[in-house]
Amino acid sequence: QLQLVESGGGLVQTGDSLRLSCIASGLTFSSYALAWFRQAPGKERKFVAAINPSGGRTNYAGSVEGRFTISRDNDRNTAYLQMNNLKPEDTAVYYCAADLGGYVSNWDQVYEYWGQGTQVTVSS
Questions:
Q1: What percent of the chain has pLDDT over 70?
Q2: Contact, 47 vs 115, CB < 8 A?
Q3: What pLDDT, in 10s, does the model give residues 22-55?
Q4: Pairing between strand 46-51 and 58-60?
Q5: Phi, psi angles (nearest 5°) of residue 78
Q6: Under DSSP, is residue 14 helix (H, G, I), strand (E, B) or coil?
Q7: For residues 69-102, b (16+ Cβ closer than 10 Å) or e, as one string?
Q8: How far apart (Å, rounded) are the C-alpha atoms in residues 115 and 65?
């Protein structure tokens, strides 16, 4: 029903910035809460940030708060994750996810739709 495709990952150095995009196709994009998760090699998937359908409410993991900004453009059916002051600890595959339930949750099991992921690598 809803397809999500991430892009914008790459190889950067400590302190650099990167913006990820999540392009959605399908109906009622503006009804979904959207979130970003990340998974480092050999680690469990972790919450990064979430945004409600209107874009007026956001939640961030403590490890990225103040450095990352989640946003959305409902006219373009796109969500973004602006990542500033990147650190090696940010290295992971980043996934976008969507939830029609209405909550801005940090629990991955809430989200019904997932993208394929985009790799972010931060070197020292």
A1: 99
A2: no
A3: 999 986 889 999 999 999 999 999 999 999 999 9
A4: antiparallel
A5: -135, 140
A6: coil
A7: bbebeeeebbbbbebeebeeebbbbbbbbbbeee
A8: 23
Rounded CA-CA distance 88/24 in Å is 29
> In degrees rounded to 5, what are phi and psi of residue 9?
-70, 170
CB–CB of 22/37 below 8 Å?
A: no
The gap from C-alpha 31 to its chain's centroid, in whole angstroms, comes to 17
pLDDT tens digit sequence for 72-120: 999 999 999 999 999 999 999 999 999 997 789 999 999 999 999 999 9
